[in-house]
């Protein structure tokens, strides 16, 4: 009985995360400013990490957890890159003292 309730809760959480990703994707597309788009993009990354974790539970495997770590690293690096672009217009600094 408890397994059925847990299975129903996990599947409903997957549906809710899917709806949240769609709403955040709309914010990425229609966002009024670039910082709003960056926050929505970062939120999508966090939600995808959660979805991958839930799928790992549903499918009873640990291999998806490695993928969630890679997604987290890529989401962090892309957020830093976009934030630097918004702040100064450049991602990489061309002025180096050698």
Automatic annotation (TrEMBL):
Q: Could you list this entry's UniProt keywords, alphabetically sorted.
A: Antiport, Cell membrane, Ion transport, Membrane, Transmembrane, Transmembrane helix, Transport
Record's keyword annotation contains Cell membrane: yes
Q: Name one Pfam family in it.
A: MrpF_PhaF
Membrane-topology descriptor: Multi-pass membrane protein
**Residues making up the signal peptide according to the UniProt record:** none
TM ranges: 6-26, 38-58, 64-86
Q: Where in the cell is it found?
A: Cell membrane
Can you tell me which family this protein belongs to?
Belongs to the CPA3 antiporters (TC 2.A.63) subunit F family.
User: What is the recorded name of this protein?
Assistant: Cation:proton antiporter
Its source organism is Staphylococcus simulans UMC-CNS-990
Lineage per the UniProt record: Bacteria, Bacillati, Bacillota, Bacilli, Bacillales
């Amino acid at each position: 009985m408890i397994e059925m309730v847990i299975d129903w809760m996990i599947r409903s959480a997957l549906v809710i995360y899917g709806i949240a990703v769609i709403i955040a994707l709309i914010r990425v597309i229609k966002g009024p400013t670039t910082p709003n788009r960056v926050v929505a993009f970062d939120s999508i990354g966090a939600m995808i990490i959660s979805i991958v974790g839930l799928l790992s539970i549903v499918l009873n495997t640990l291999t998806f957890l490695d993928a969630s770590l890679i997604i987290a690293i890529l989401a962090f690096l892309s957020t830093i890159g976009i934030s630097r672009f918004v702040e100064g217009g450049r991602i990489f600094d061309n002025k180096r003292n050698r």
